[in-house]
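Recall from the previous chapter that SMILES is a line notation for molecules. Here it describes 2-acetamido-2-deoxy-beta-D-glucopyranose.
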Amino acid sequence: MIVFILFFSTFASGLSFTNYNFKRKNNFPVVGIVSTPCDDTFNTTGARSYIAASYVKFLESGGIRVVPILYNYTYEEIDFLMSKINGVYLIGGKTKLTSVIDGQEYWHEYLNKSAYIVNKVIEKNRNGEYFPYVGVCMGAQLLHIALTEHCECAMQYTDALNFRSNLMFTDSVPKSRLFGNADPRMLYEMAYKNITYQNHKYGFYPSLYTDNPKVSSMLRPLAVSYDRLGVLNVVISEGIDIPFYATMIHPEKPAYEWFSLKINHNITAIEVGHYFATFYATEFGKNTNTFGNYTEYQKYSILNHQVYYLHRPLEQAYLFF
Ligand SMILES: *[C@@H]1O[C@H](CO)[C@@H](O)[C@H](O)[C@H]1NC(C)=O
Ligand SMILES: *[C@@H]1O[C@H](CO)[C@@H](O)[C@H](O)[C@H]1NC(C)=O
Ligand SMILES: *[C@@H]1O[C@H](CO)[C@@H](O)[C@H](O)[C@H]1NC(C)=O
Ligand SMILES: *[C@@H]1O[C@H](CO)[C@@H](O)[C@H](O)[C@H]1NC(C)=O
Ligand SMILES: *[C@@H]1O[C@H](CO)[C@@H](O)[C@H](O)[C@H]1NC(C)=O
Ligand SMILES: *[C@@H]1O[C@H](CO)[C@@H](O)[C@H](O)[C@H]1NC(C)=O
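With both inputs in hand, we obtain:
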């Protein structure tokens, strides 16, 4: 993995990084977000699971509609929804994925369902259906856990809670789907202007993508960054044959989250978010699944649920009781 240097300069304002040079089959993408168990965050509200509204607003800003996939849905319900939607978006959050009782390790139902979804995504794509999986933060961790069949080696301690940093791009970027058509000025801003935000304790070391065949055969790293202790981590990767996207940076936060003072809200940070939202919309738009009619979609839309104004630690969240 070679990290390359960008020579492009940039202008301060009026930027638009959006690239429209893509083929789309479907201008009505609908995406599933798996809800996060409330065992840590919002555990006092009595809600069983939640979805931070920022992820929903972020996807909506790209022209994507959202249906919730509650993590406790049955496998049949998940199969049904995955036959109607155009991809899945696995989000960040904080939850205990495993517990040890009497020396025996148990997987949280949320971990089981996420791993099931990852394997289903692989199966669909291998059967010729283009079905993207995007994982942000814990959603990226869940992807790595599932691909390695829950190997301890998948994630390593990193000091990147509430952390802003610069990125370094790898030599896979020019031929990548995610950044292959990106405006070099955007990569320059991400590389040098300290606009990307991370908030996690467990990341991925570059060696995972060279030494572990289960990972190296599936994902290629696109960007790395140092954590607070100077440890190098892979923060953006994409699937080689399968449309997986995994980011430890949060493209949705600059426009929609205000509690942490570390989040950069300047115009370039917002434009980077727009780039990701419209890129993902185009990826989801390559899938042609449909609910068939509006009434059928409407039954499952996240807009049936109430959104709560909280500010801390998230501006708004959908709570599922
Ligand atoms: C965005 O924020 C970064 C870091 O504070 C700064 O270096 C950059 O110039 C800002 N860009 C704009 C367009 O304000
Ligand atoms: C909620 O989670 C926090 C953080 O893990 C913990 O300190 C607290 O005891 C939990 N509260 C309940 C009611 O479970
Ligand atoms: C998770 O999956 C494991 C093995 O596939 C199974 O033994 C366990 O019962 C499942 N746990 C839950 C909560 O579904
Ligand atoms: C990035 O910005 C944060 C927040 O202002 C600051 O703490 C950090 O030192 C900056 N890092 C770099 C590499 O400029
Ligand atoms: C919408 O689709 C559902 C499920 O396929 C079907 O049962 C229903 O009759 C359709 N409604 C209309 C108005 O076409
Ligand atoms: C899942 O949890 C919700 C509450 O969040 C509940 O209404 C629903 O019945 C549960 N579904 C299953 C299959 O357990």
